[in-house]
Amino acid sequence: MLKELKVKRAINGDEKAFISIIEEQKEKLYKTAYAYVKNEQDALDIVQETVYKAYISIDTLIKPKYFNTWLTKILINISINTLNKNKKVTYLEEEPMAEGSTTLDNKDTEIDILNELDKLDKKYKDVIVLKYFEDLTIKEIASVLEIPIGTAKTYLNRGLTSLRISIGKDEL
């Protein structure tokens, strides 16, 4: 209840209230950003950009009780944008292949999965990325995305089912 009052004050232009709320959230914001980018500097940049965007648009927040969800969505969107920017720079390393090696097949499969993952609904993709790329538990995923544990399990199941269907293989 106290937090909702701070959020209301922040919405009405109280900078101290906004700073206080962000101070309470900064560690969680950093952990979430780091879970996406796995890079300290990028995670810090993402947190900084999230705080800035939240500050300039807090007056658009209609229900103060959804502040955490709103802030997390901003953070996740910025994290994904950062990942997409970083994906554009690809370094290719030439590896000698042994006879009969399946490295190429495995790389093709990985590329197929990543391409299909990009086609998934954002909520399913977020859960799968946090589970399989960041090794978070369902409980941690629910906490990061601020959704119930049951919803996180459902999103994971539906996302994996969609991936299996779209790839047409039982590789997952």
Automatic annotation (TrEMBL):
PANTHER family per UniProt: RNA POLYMERASE ECF-TYPE SIGMA FACTO (PTHR43133), RNA POLYMERASE SIGMA FACTOR (PTHR43133:SF51)
NCBIfam families: Sig70_famx3 (TIGR02954), sigma70-ECF (TIGR02937)
Pfam family, one: Sigma70_r2
Ranges for domain RNA polymerase sigma-70 region: 22-88
GO BP of this protein: DNA-templated transcription initiation
Species of origin: Romboutsia weinsteinii
Molecular function as annotated in GO: DNA binding; sigma factor activity
Keyword annotations from UniProtKB, A to Z: Sigma factor, Transcription, Transcription regulation
Protein name: Sigma-70 family RNA polymerase sigma factor
InterPro entries for this protein: RNA_pol_sigma-70-like (IPR039425), RNA_pol_sigma-70_dom (IPR014284), RNA_pol_sigma-V (IPR014300), RNA_pol_sigma70_r2 (IPR007627), RNA_pol_sigma70_r4_t2 (IPR013249), RNA_pol_sigma_r2 (IPR013325), RNA_pol_sigma_r3/r4-like (IPR013324), WH-like_DNA-bd_sf (IPR036388)
Signal sequence segment: none
Domain RNA polymerase sigma factor 70 region 4 type: 113-162
Membership in a protein family: Belongs to the sigma-70 factor family. ECF subfamily.
